[in-house]
């Protein structure tokens, strides 16, 4: 699906329906993988070309219960959205609203506290070292924000996070978690999936206390480039995961 084809929140009904379904599926799959956290955390997807009109989950709805029609349509330039029924919490508005306002290229934004990504983010140096295929996948694609100040609910923090993410598809949020952006839900979810696997490898490798066999920049760059022809994996993987939802939770589409 090309999100760029969506002119505004009312255009291309079939595309909007697909986007709502894909984002709802991402919430549920994230929960099945054990990456949800109570009724917090947020996923979003831009509807307008400028990115300012976007879908976001409502306040404190468990990931495992979200259906396509539960998603709110918000505008990053309209803070009155925070006063509406089921308005998102302040951290959702700060992180997702600011990223969509400042980075129109960030079409889908997934923020999660997946366990190994959080463990990596809690290291004094959380650099994603290229050790294997999965870690090298992210070579040159990761931004870092190491200025954790508590719950991300201040406007200046949202600006700082968006600035750190500019030009990257992954943001390691120090002492916090990870945010991933992609052109489609499937692409963003695939990066979230592989980033958690990469973080697991890094945490396990660090835990040995032995010297790490870090790949050279040249090999890491070639490996990252080598992933590009495999981009089609994302859609195929996501379609399979949605098929499991259809089998195990047939009412998830609403």
Number of helices: 8
Tell me the distance between the termini. Answer: 21 Å
Question: For the record, what is the CATH homologous superfamily label?
Answer: Class II aldolase/adducin N-terminal domain
Tell me the name of the CATH class: Alpha Beta
| Oligomeric state as shown | single chain
What structural category characterises the helix and strand content? alpha+beta
> What value does the average pLDDT take?
92
Structure description:
The structure is a single chain. The protein has 254 residues and is an alpha+beta fold. The protein has a single domain (3-247), classed as L-fuculose-1-phosphate Aldolase, CATH 3.40.225. 41% of the residues lie in helices and 13% in strands. It has 8 helices and 7 strands, in the order αβββαβααβαββααα. α5 (155-165) links the parallel β5 and β6. α2 crosses α5 (155-165). It is globular, with a radius of gyration of 18 Å. The protein starts with 12 loop residues before the first helix and ends in a 6-residue tail after the last helix. The model is unreliable at 1-11 (pLDDT under 50).
Summarize the structure.
By secondary structure, this protein is an alpha+beta fold. The chain has 8 helices and 7 strands.
Keywords:
single chain, 254 residues, alpha+beta, L-fuculose-1-phosphate Aldolase, seven-stranded mixed β-sheet, 8 helices, 13% strand, globular, disordered N terminus
Q: What is the strand and helix layout of this fold?
A:
Layout: H1 13-32, E1 42-46, E2 53-56, E3 72-75, H2 90-102, E4 108-112, H3 115-121, H4 133-136, E5 142-145, H5 155-165, E6 170-173, E7 177-182, H6 185-207, H7 217-227, H8 233-248
Parallel strand pairs: 5-6
Antiparallel strand pairs: 1-2, 1-4, 2-3, 4-7, 6-7
């Amino acid at each position: 699906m090309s999100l760029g084809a969506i002119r505004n929140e009312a255009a291309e009904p079939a595309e909007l329906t697909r986007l709502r379904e894909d984002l709802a599926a991402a919430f549920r799959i994230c929960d099945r993988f054990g990456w949800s956290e109570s009724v917090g955390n947020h996923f979003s997807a831009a509807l307008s070309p400028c990115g300012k009109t976007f879908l976001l989950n409502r306040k404190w709805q468990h990931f495992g219960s979200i259906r396509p029609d539960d998603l709110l349509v918000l505008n990053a330039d309209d803070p009155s959205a925070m006063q509406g029924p089921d308005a998102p919490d302040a951290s959702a508005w700060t992180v997702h609203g600011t990223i969509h306002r400042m980075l129109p290229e960030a079409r889908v934004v997934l923020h999660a506290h997946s366990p190994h990504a959080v463990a990596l983010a809690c290291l004094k140096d959380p650099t994603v070292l290229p050790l294997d295929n999965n870690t090298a996948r992210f070579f040159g694609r990761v931004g870092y924000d190491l200025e954790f100040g508590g719950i991300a609910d201040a406007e200046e923090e949202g600006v700082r996070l968006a600035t750190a993410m500019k030009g990257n598809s992954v943001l390691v949020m120090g002492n916090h978690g990870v945010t991933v952006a992609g052109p489609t839900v499937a692409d963003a979810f695939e990066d979230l999936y592989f980033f958690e696997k990469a973080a697991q490898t890094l945490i396990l490798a660090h835990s040995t206390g032995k010297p790490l066999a870090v790949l050279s920049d040249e090999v890491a760059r070639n490996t990252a480039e080598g992933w590009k022809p495999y981009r089609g994996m994302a859609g195929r993987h996501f379609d399979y995961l949605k098929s499991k939802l259809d089998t195990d939770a047939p009412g998830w589409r609403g």
